[in-house]
Amino acid sequence: MPSDDEQDLPKTPPASTNNELPPDFDVGINTSAAWTESRDKGRSLSDEETDPNDPELDYLQTSGKPARALYSFEGKPEFREVCVSAGDEVEIMREEVGDGWSLVKLFVEGGVELGLLPRSYYAFTADFTSSPSHNPREVSNSSITPRGSPKLDPQPIMPQHTGEWFPSFRRNLMGGKSLNRFSSFVTSGAEEWVLKGAPEDEPPPPIHHRLTSEPDEVAETTLSRLGVAEEDLHYVDEGPSWKIKLPPFRILVHSPAKRTSPLTGSYTVYSVTSLFRQPDSGEDFKSESHRVTVHRRFSHFLALHTALSRRLPGIALPPLPEKQYAGRFSDAFIEARRGDLERYIGRIVRHPVARYAEVLTFFLSCEGDMEWKREMPKYLNTPPAGPSFYAHVFHPAYNLDTEELAETANRFANHTRAVGKGVQGLRNIFAQIRQARVEMSRAERLLSYSLLSLITSKPLASSSTTIVEEEEDGISPLGDNCKGTMNSDGAWCWREECTDCLKLTKSIQKTADALQSVADMYDDHARRTQLITHEALKGVSHPYTTYAPILDTHLSTVTRYHEALASTAEAHEEISARCETVLNTTMAEMETYHSQKIEDFETLTKEHLDGEIQLYGQIISKLKAARGNFDEPLYGSMAQTPRQPSIFERELENPRLTNLPLTQPTPHVFDSAPMRPVSVAIQEGVGLFLNAPRSSVFGKFW
């Protein structure tokens, strides 16, 4: 079952049976929700669950809205898609089933087909005749509806669930790859915008996309009348690049605390603080003029991600960290989760469009639980923006180099692939560097113990070194009760009251103590400072996967754009204009990656160098202090008192050389090999159910 830390998302009323899915189970989280959104009143559409009284079984007998196919479409049977030719007459049984798809009934020779068809591929007609003999044609090979299905005894409809049953589990099992079959060009609403423009209930402002990046007075009046808020208007400047409407600010996720609820059990809450700079303060966030702190659970971040995905379909949002089903309250995991959430929300507020989204403002400012539960469902229940997002994008005329649109996308794809591969190699090398620091810590500590063993004649545990102990002339140096190894003052000498050896002994002892401090510095640097950098490398490790939907939309639009430019029809001129809007959006996203890449790698490199400088600066300071013990007058003053034993002498018989394993970063969502131990157990557990009906899987976990 889901973790307690992720249970308090606003939910719609539960289904009528115990084994039915929550209505919003996989809506909006990087998956297709075509069939999950098609449920009526929470009815399940699992492949194995059928209800004799389910009204969907009557779709083959009932009539829908008449429509005619505008374009040919070759569907795939494994996704319950129908094949149509331009001009075919269909009936729309459900206009919106999610991600830009409709449930349609198609009349064919000997029966009917029922399946999915993109919303932008048909238009409603007023004089449709529902006779199945009207305009008959051969049953398409892609249909899985039996030929000649009798109308009075229809075969049960078994819709294919197109979303992920367990998004987190399947991502682990399938190597971190998304299994979403639907093209981003369709699911984002870009295709519907290109073919049809804005939705019928929301006419676009006049020629907003061809003349100016700012809406004129008529456009502003139209937008105001339609209730379009300023945060829903997005501007592209020359470049193309997104126009910055709000200055950047900083987000800190800190102070995790465990809490317990009588309803949901234990969970972790994080403090989320927004820091706003004073005017003309540059990059200095220390002198912020205002700060706002709220408390958020992981499920709150999940709700934010879902709402942003629905309202900003043309934006490349960073992936949300994976859920955790065990070990959620260990200190290591809580700190790793805190860092992941801080990097996630930090990348959101860095985006010039996402950071002024209304839902983000609400997320960062809502302080009361009652207000959250009252207002957040409004954002989650708002229909996906789809083509409306592109209808609200304004850009200058002739802002594109039409000759290089496809070439630019190909170069961008190759570059992001190379960056991802290079960063993966860097992450592996960085793990070795951290391990080398731990080994250096061990070597410095061993050197310290060896010096103490030398001046005290106390043996160092043989298991700690490979040095072979030899006896000279058959005489053991520890014989005769160690007489002669040290005098009564603790000096490394056989003579009594030898001040020279006393000064030397105490100075070497202080050197050994300093080396212990150096060993601690190396170890702490690898486990704390370098771990932060190692974790931060995840944020730049999979740029191609993050921007793949943007590239898909871009290349699909380029194809439509060139087709429209090659046509002389007046309608195609409007299509080409709308294509320019989409292409300005995708090019602005590529520019956003470009600027963020520079900032990310500059920050990562500077932080690494600053950490190394600080480490070696502390080491040099400690070594200089040890070296100063051999200089006058400090060296001479050491002969005034007897030597006191070092606190590390007691460790010679059992030296601290066995270090704990290095803490490794938690895996990125798109990593091909998850590293969390709990993932292995989860994968093995889910593997037991892979051959079982899906309903049984939900019965076990939900």
From TrEMBL:
SMART domains attached to this UniProt entry: PX
Compositional bias ranges of the Basic and acidic residues kind: 37-46
Keyword tRNA processing found: no
UniProt keyword Kinase present: no
Pfam family, one: PX
GO MF annotations, alphabetized: phosphatidylinositol binding
Identification of the protein by name: PX-domain-containing protein
GO cellular component labels: cytoplasmic vesicle; plasma membrane
Disordered as annotated region, ranges: 1-65, 128-152
Alphabetically ordered keywords of this record: SH3 domain
Residue ranges of domain PX in the record: 248-370
Gene3D superfamilies per UniProt: Arfaptin homology (AH) domain/BAR domain, Phox-like domain, SH3 Domains
GO biological process: endocytosis; endosomal transport; plasma membrane tubulation
Residue intervals of the SH3 domain: 62-127
Composition skew (Polar residues), residue ranges: 128-146
